[in-house]
Every structure is written in C-alpha cells, then in structure tokens.
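[step 3/7] fold_predict: job queued, chain A
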Amino acid sequence: MMEKDTLDDLFESLKGEFDINEPNSGHENRFLDKLNAGELTLTESKRSSGFNWKPFLAVAASLVICLSVFTTINNDPEAMDLASVSPELSETQDFFTATIEAELKKLNQERSPLTDQVITDALNRIELLEKDYQNLKNDLTESNNDQRVIHAMINNFQNRIDILNTVLEQIETIKQLKHNSNEPKNTI
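[step 4/7] structure written:
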C-alpha cells in the first residue's frame, strides 16, 4: 500500500511535465523506414564478414577452462602418508598394510551364507576407517608432520586390524556352533 501512495505522489509531482502532444504526421512511416534501414545494414554487415567466430571462441574458451583445471589438479601437493615422514614409519606402514591385506584375504576365504553379514559389516567399518585415513593423510600434509596426526594414523591401522581379528574370531565361533549343532546327540 505504501508503494502505491509513493507512486501516486510521484505522478502528482510530475503533473504537467509529460509530453502528451501527438507526433507529427508521417512519424510512423519515418520510424519504420529507419528500422528497416538498420536491419538492412545489419544483414549486410553479417554477409560481408563471411566468417562466424562464435564456435571457435567457444572451443577456445573450453580449452582454456580444461587447461586451468588440469594445471590446478596437477599443482596440488600429494597428501603425505606415514612412509613420507621417516624410514621407520615407512616400515610401520608397510607392516600394517601387509597385515591388513593378509587378514582381508583370510576374511574373504571364510565367506559363506552364515558369515556373509558379519563380513559385510566388517568391510563397511574398514571402508569408513580407510576414508578417515585419507582425511588424516591430508591433515598430516597440512600440519607438517604433527605427532598427534601420526598417532591417529597408527591407531587407524590398529583399529582396522582389531576389527579384522574380531570378525575372524566371530567366524570361528559361528563355525564351531554350526559344527556342534550338526553333531549327533548321544544320549543314553
């Protein structure tokens, strides 16, 4: 409502300043002649250039964008891991990695309909820890080898191994229970 009052006030203040006279005779024809002349000039200028640069400019712009993205990706420093901190931590990382791979092989060999859900749950937890480890690698790079990050990375490896060992123990228990339930009951 306030805007309407403001507009009414504006028109009231401009009263008598509007050009309300009729244009001279032939105004419409002169206007159309000028409009048509402008279109002819525009059409002739398009024909005279003969070459359309727009597609090439679009391709060039695309190439510039691709190159800038490529160089940005290549200039990012690679995230550090334990191996990049010291030779001792490199050995530690190799040990944990080899142990985890061996435990994963054992786990996958134990896959059966009875153990499938337990193994799937464990692999999901391992995957979450792996994502956390990737974040820790970035943190290590940003923190310039902060000892707290290094300890968190080692704990991450230990947690993965603990999960794998626990699941392998659960699988042994499941197999033992199945074996015991399949034994004939000797009752006298």
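[step 5/7] annotate
The radius of gyration is 39 Å.
Residues 147-182 form the longest helix (36 residues).
exit 0
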